[in-house]
Amino acid sequence: MATGIPAITMAPAGNIILISWSKAVERSKIVRFAIAAGAIFLGGASLYLSVPIFVGDLRLVPGNATLRNIQERKPVAPKGIEDLIASRRHALEWWDSERVWTDLGLAHLVFSAWVDRAHVQGELLSARDALHRGLTRAPASPYAWTRLAYVEYLLEGVSEEMVRALRMALITGPHERFISY
Questions:
Q1: Residue 102 near residue 130 (C-beta atoms within 8 A)
Q2: What rounded mean pLDDT belongs to the chain?
Q3: What percent of the chain has pLDDT over 90?
Q4: DSSP code string of 120-156
Q5: 42, 76, 133, 177: which has the highest count of C-beta atoms within 10 A?
Q6: How far apart are CA 77 and CA 62, in angstroms?
Q7: Is the distance from CB of 134 to CB of 99 less than 8 angstroms?
Q8: Backbone angles phi, psi at 16, to 5 degrees
């Protein structure tokens, strides 16, 4: 005989069926276990999906001060730009982000002014590649289009690619809040 307070339910034929309290408790334990397992699964999936972004952001930290100085038009040292390039490359190992690609393109563009004449072409090609990759992921960035137009100008002078990039900078510019400042 079951112990505890019985739960009374009606069967389809109208007969009263007594279900013991202990069976109801067992069912609630199973439901709680299923909810907990589901929550753990969802938490684990969220953690799995967020770890690359978190680690990628951590890898960006060493170059952030140099990037901020470039954006604020403050002087930067070649070592700082090398650190910026290295931090962006390390972050891309974890997180393939358009922002990281366009930052890397900017770093290569600025670094091209510091390297000797033999390596300028390589830095500009790296800048063009990184800007292209960033713009394929986020094509509405007028800053990246402007930088790409400048890189194309430095590589080939006035060319069809430079005009195309400059046109895209003008098209996407009105959507950028601070572009006129």
A1: yes
A2: 85
A3: 56
A4: HHHHHHHHHHHHHHHHHH-TT-HHHHHHHHHHHHHHH
A5: 76
A6: 14
A7: yes
A8: -85, 130
